[in-house]
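Quick one: structure for this chain?
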Amino acid sequence: MQAEFWDERYEDANYAYGIQPNVFLKEQLPNLKRGSILFPCEGEGRNAVYATEQAWDVTAFDLSEQGRNKALLLAQKRFVNFQYDIKNALDYSYDKLFDAVGIFFSHFPEEDQAVCYKRFSASIKKGGYILGELFAENQLAYQAKYDSGGPKNEKILLSIDKMKILFPEIKFDILSEQEVELDEGPYHQGKARTIRFLGRKTK
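Got it. Here's what it folds into:
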């Protein structure tokens, strides 16, 4: 989606996806060795702020100026600082590799999926971590019943088999599709079907 869509979503003073970190991130990040972490498509900054509070060296990016502004405002209120850049997931680059990359509800059109997720994986040091949560293909049924968010095109959603294809260089310790109860601002509320994952880059 284009920057205009996300700028419009984030222009309200309220946080579209809340200000608390993703539950799976909060569960797993303390188990990892601290270092540098990249949050692509970070939106309003809730996960980046949390990781910074946990003494990680955080870099985030998104294509939305409104998202960045709200993320930096949240960081100011929580007395932390981190790098937040305006970049597009299709063509971003950094001059360093990261100890971890956190991917949370970052979905792309089918024709862009492989490029974007490959770039995310390429940003990790060998032996570094990848972790995150994405909507599963079965979320379509949950949208109809619970209106809990996510893309409405099945080809944009993920499955465990798709994850293995998209991330061949990752050895997953956790790769699980499950029903969860989302409580992440007005756009992620209620029962949902997601894939949670944690792995290390082996190549």
